[in-house]
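Intended use. Records like the one below are meant for learning the mapping from a protein sequence to its folded structure. Do not use them to infer anything beyond what is encoded.
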Amino acid sequence: MTGPMNKIAMLLMYRRIFDTPFFQRVVVGGVITNIIWWFTMSVSGVFTCVPVQAYWLTETPGKKCFNLLQYDLGYAIINIALDVFILILPIQEVWKLQVTRPQKIAISFIFLIGGL
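Structure written out for the chain above:
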């Protein structure tokens, strides 16, 4: 699960680049959100089935499991939303810079390359 660590690293990099108070608070909120999301999905991932070993021992009698399709879909939707948030976060700050419009566009594209 390196995804949340990469997201947190990106947010902390943004925090070093842009130092406006509002942006700093948004970044800290993003870091906290990612940590909470990481923790909750890790815990719920362990307990997708009760008893826990029923996840890999499919013939366990009396097992109860989440609907894994819905679980994975929910996980993916939130992860994509967090990715989009992290990708577009620096764009507003870039457009506040005292540079020409073509430079703002170029810098924005550099930040958006992470979407690839």
